[in-house]
Amino acid sequence: MLQLSINTFILRVEIVTTGWVEMELVNCGRCGKLQVLRPDTLCKDCQQIYIAEAQIVKNYIKTNPGATIMDVVQFTGYPMRRINEILER
Ligand SMILES: [Zn+2]
């Protein structure tokens, strides 16, 4: 935790001193890892996981057309919020 905040500080100082003002760092929406700001807020690692999870959810719905969100939650073990996010895209 302390290590992370030191890294954050160093990265921010670097941005100021090199003048990369347009490069903004944000925390990943899932794991909290720092990344350069992008339209979606997941880092590269979490994006890979997201794609894999979305595949599983979509496959399940395809093979179980009558399934409810609760069925998907039970089958995948993912939080309902995450499944809604996948289905909204
Ligand atoms: Zn992440």
By helix and strand content, what is the structural category? mainly alpha
Domain module count: 2
Largest sheet geometry = 2 strands, antiparallel
- The percent range for strand residues is 5-15%
Listing every helix as H and every strand as E from the N terminus to the C terminus, the arrangement reads HEEHHH
Helix content: 55-70%
Question: How many distinct beta strands?
Answer: 2
Mean pLDDT: 78
Global morphology:
elongated
Strand ordering within the main sheet:
1-2
Which residues sit in consecutive blocks of at least 5 with pLDDT less than 50? none
Bound molecules: zinc ion
N→C terminal distance: 33 Å
Query: For the CA atoms, what is the radius of gyration?
Result: 18 Å
Q: Count of helical segments?
A: 4
Tell me about this structure:
This protein is mainly alpha-helical and 89 residues long. It has two domains: 2-36, no CATH class; 44-88. It is built from four helices and two strands; from the N terminus they run H-E-E-H-H-H. It has a two-stranded antiparallel ribbon. The longest helix is centred in the middle third of the chain and has 20 residues, at 44-63. It is elongated, with a radius of gyration of 18 Å. The model has no long low-confidence stretch (mean pLDDT 78). Zinc ion binds at residues 28, 30-31, 33, 42-43, 45-46.
